[in-house]
């Protein structure tokens, strides 16, 4: 792993913060081939997949114990994104300790952290005038990450006691049962802060001004420079109409996108288990209108950047990529000559697949940059920030982030499902309603499956939010936008009547 460490140390500024980096098996130009091979073999022996996080101290030091925690078996069973979030949370607390205690600039070793240090950190994150005032959900995740680290450190005899104050609470049998000790620092979650969402008209205004480059009057802005506006519009329309997470949608392959068929208003798009949270396969429904936008993007904008990259010879000079012999083949050949099924590739590996077509090599990834290379999630975050800035300048007061579009999909879908079910059950008795639910399913569970929630409890948060809305707001939630209609499956609209079938 020396090569990755050297690269991280070289690229790191001279900060006072602990930094999170990611492992890479990619060959770096000019690197010693023998060192590169040894590094790959070490990563394989430690069962560290591509993109696994590790932490460096402010001076570039590699704390063996901290990083041993990040590579333990329980942690490796979690997704890359979860592990990265835990590493970020841990690095944040370690950085805070590095600032020292009041009246002293002496950094605090994490092994010597005290309850008082946690109290000061709590105050800074949640109540200090100079602090970030994070949401309850963010804070509780941070507490869990660092608390689990110190529980592990106690068990490993690295520290004598944890700096966390705890209390006893009963854990349900579903979660293992029995009394457990939990940190007292957690805050009660606030449903209102859980979900930021837009009404149909708000979304259209945010998209048209921020992504399409229109003015507040609905006219094209001549000052707007957005050569990939078609790609970006297709991306946000897909997100708001399917409910995919950014990390799921950003790593779609061109071959993942279904073709439009007659008789349906939507098509199923299947997500690989290696790219979803919880590592479970699921499918989402995509409206034909959005599929048309994606097809237009592929035919024009995407085709142009691919052709330009091929003319420059960019794809032929790429190293450490997987090769797919044709768009219809489900296997790829890895950098070392190994054969892999496309479905087994991680999210990062999917971004390193080249497909051999009649015109030459091109990335398998759906979303490409102006240079013809796969766009990664951070690039989409930048695009959203730019869209928000344009909306602020236009005076709309509307801002949006990727997860807000997922929340918007959930709220709009649940509202439509409930309207359909209420129409059917309006004149039914309680017994008939119970029988109906047993036969046709529950709107909440249908939405849970589309969103990929492990527990229906998470999905119920949307139900509570919806119940708190005024009727006028609920009507504005959907507007008259037909693109937010429910899917059609086998010729029947998927409302309450066909919910049971679509749960499979």
What does this structure look like?
This protein is mainly alpha-helical and 504 residues long. It is 46% helix and 11% strand. It is built from 20 helices and 13 strands. The strands form 6 sheets. A 3-stranded mixed beta sheet has the order 7-10-11, with no helix packed on it. A two-stranded antiparallel ribbon has the order 1-2. The longest helix is centred in the middle third of the chain and has 25 residues. It starts with a helix and ends with a helix. This is Site-specific recombinase XerD. Belongs to the 'phage' integrase family. It holds the Pfam family Phage_int_SAM_1.
SS field, number of helical segments: 20
Mean pLDDT: 83
For the largest beta sheet, what order do the strands appear in spatially?
Answer: 7-10-11
- What percent of residues adopt helix (DSSP H or I)? 40-55%
DSSP summary, beta strand count: 13
Low-confidence stretches: 5-14, 488-504
| Distance N to C terminus | 44 Å
Radius of gyration: 25 Å
Domain Tyr recombinase: 193-476
Pfam family, one: Phage_int_SAM_1
Family: Belongs to the 'phage' integrase family.
Keywords: DNA integration, DNA recombination, DNA-binding
Task: Please name the defining characteristics of this protein.
504 residues; mainly alpha; hpI Integrase, Chain A; 3-stranded mixed beta sheet; 13 strands; disordered C terminus
